Amino acid sequence: MPTILLTPTCADAGQRLDVYVAGATPDLSRSQVKRLIDKNRIRVAGQPAGASTKVLAGAAISVVLPEPADPALQAEPFVVLLLYCDDHIVVVDKPHGLVVHPGAGQSAHTLANQLVDRFPEIAAVGDSDRPGIVHRLDKDTSGVLVVARTPAAHAWLVAQFAARAVEKSYLALVEGAPTVARGLIDAPVGRHPTRRTSMGVVRDGKPATTHFTILETLGRYTLLNVAPDTGRTHQIRVHLAAAGLPVAGDTQYGRSARVIGLQRMFLHAFTLGFLHPATRELVQFRAPLAGDLVQALRYCGSAWVENRQVDPGIERP
To answer: Do residue 181 and residue 238 come from a single domain?
Structure first.
């Protein structure tokens, strides 16, 4: 893989690592630099470092770039459920099993490929490998996701997510039952020390907080409304597992076998609320539960009905 070697001078000393690298490599945006840091592709004196690490004069920095991607994202038929669209945003119900954008080991068959088919202008919005994308859902997490159609909308939405001003709620069926009706999990999340493809609650991880409220107690399972304040990788799954409440069907952080007949984990991005990039008014969207998740709830004896209202601004304890 191509590697860039940088040597900071005395004039550079004291800068944040992400700021210095973005300034020293004009072909990389700040967001691209951050992703490289998160993947340990940027090292200082041979050691991994965080985005806020202060640059030292003479401390060599190596930037390992990913292999060049195809110059244009290949359009693929748009088949996801479109919940809403206007001249500024697109809101979809991402199905489970669909990756949001190309990444390591997958260059096609993603939501981004479908988006550029239905909305060609999105190809010029944001990063070329993730056009229009402002947030993500795990491959096996279904639910509501917003995409920007213009650079201005992209910048507006990215800023809202960064400021944690977006209202998000998830439905999670978990094994076990919390000891309180609603609560807060506050624990840092980072790369697992031994399972490098997994995340975990680790001492030197990034701050992460997740609120939850019990919706239904269903024997050995509990249906929760979950609202993360932060957006760490696998945050909800890691936090719930650490609290002894693994998401049903999550074979990575929960049980080793599927349960209640599900072929996936029961985690669904149910509602999403944000200030519209054009009107600056609060808009809220909801993605209905897919049939297999409804069936799993029925199996557990749930009284769930689709028009049931769940407050997207989940009550905080």
So the answer is: yes
Whether residue 197 is found in the same domain as residue 149: no
124 vs 28: CA distance, rounded Å: 16
pLDDT digits (tens, 9 = 90+) for 265-275: 999 999 999 99
Answer whether residue 316 is part of any domain.
no
Does the annotation mark 229 as catalytic?
no
Q: Which amino acid is at 266?
A: F
Task: Report the side by side order of strands in the sheet with 3-6.
Answer: 3-6, 61-64, 42-44, 47-48
Query: What's the Rg (C-alpha) of the chain?
Result: 21
Whole-number pLDDT of residue 283: 97
Q: Please identify which of the residues 12, 129, 138, 250 carries the catalytic annotation.
A: 138
Crossing angle for the helix pair 17-24 and 30-38, nearest 10 degrees? Answer: 120
> What is the dihedral sign for C-alpha 153, 101, 103, 209?
positive
Beta bridge partners, 204, equal none
Model-level pTM? 0.75
